[in-house]
């Protein structure tokens, strides 16, 4: 009655039936997962694309949407879909604490699988088993006692920064702080962690530009679910030029590792010891990050050359970019808020006076208000906007069960802007981190360094280095800017939080007197 189907029609009908059959099979196979996922509050989801459209706007719009969802659903977990991946956004500090400390939520999510193309299986991206082993080896290099040995390097690099910034002194033309700061943090991380001096032959600028370009390209793939299958991502990697960029960026880390390995082995030969004996002899002596890695590689057959490379490039990437981002934001915020800048300088003056001496561990311990300022900077502009955890089992949080297989997203910038945690959250207020105010809040109200077992291993290093750099700059200059806080806009696709248009400031020679000594006091 309907006639014989043509070949194209037969192909279409067969394809539709096949797709529907696969869809029903998938839903039946994952019915338990879908049942739990369906109980979570969240915006509408559409076939195939899920709620991807929610994440295709500007950064401001996306963050505004996440904040709106958090408020709309009373800060409960919110379920969304990006293609076949189910994401659960967790905002409440109580729920965040449960997730970050649960042994069934230690695997990283989809974003980190893309970053493995750049960082390999370093601490940031490693599977749980590998992470446990690497962290045990690497934690030695972040012991506070050994961090104190690095102060001469911090002081040296920061004085070079001040010398370079002095070229702009008293100029009314704003300059972008970023290039100065990222160059300094990169030099510092290479020398403190790797005992390696960067110079002109290393083409540092090319490496840093490649690092940013590759990381941004990888982060953008998160909103492209059609690239999630490894085959399609491999094709994309080849056709987009990403593969060639990855080869180029490995040149500097491999050169560094090879030079340090030659140096390390020559020391073993000179000591007339076996690698294991040499390691035991140095057990209680100062060792850099690279020393620790090379020792592990010599003594443990399961810790390979690839492991060394992965950890070195992870350190070069995360250790320089994150610090530089926060330092730039912090100095810009102090330029906008001159009253707070005066308070910070007064504290610095009260600790070190008007001398140019090198800073010490005792000095940084006394920079209490400066630490509040840095933490408030990280509250407003955390270096990582979102991080994810993949659930290998169901997890019960306060009011819901999060299903196995879901990717839990935790957004510091959303939690940090909850008005019930931080009154007037859009304002820059270092008093949010006074002892009294911190005591009133849940510990996981502040997650700039993540938390739990997989929290940032370099947190103490980061705080020390940021205190030292910012205080050194403010000892020499006052910083100023023509922009207001309301002008600050954030880039959407960067791997780290970055400001649109850079960090425009001017610097003036510092009047070394504290602000209270500069005020006009009327004669009696």
From TrEMBL:
One of its GO terms (molecular function) is iron ion binding. Keywords: Endoplasmic reticulum, Heme, Iron, Membrane, Metal-binding, Microsome, Monooxygenase, Oxidoreductase, Transmembrane, Transmembrane helix. Its cofactor is heme. It is found in: Endoplasmic reticulum membrane; Microsome membrane. One of its GO terms (cellular component) is endoplasmic reticulum membrane. InterPro entries: Cyt_P450, Cyt_P450_CS, Cyt_P450_E_grp-IV, Cyt_P450_sf, Cytochrome_P450_Monoox. The chain crosses the membrane at residues 6-26. It holds the Pfam family p450. The keyword Endoplasmic reticulum applies. It comes from the Eukaryota. SUPFAM superfamilies: Cytochrome P450 (SSF48264). PROSITE patterns: CYTOCHROME_P450 (PS00086). Heme binds at residue 456. It is a peripheral membrane protein. May be involved in the metabolism of insect hormones and in the breakdown of synthetic insecticides. Belongs to the cytochrome P450 family. This is Cytochrome P450 monooxygenase CYP380A1. It comes from Aphis gossypii (Cotton aphid). The lineage of its organism: Eukaryota, Metazoa, Ecdysozoa, Arthropoda, Hexapoda.
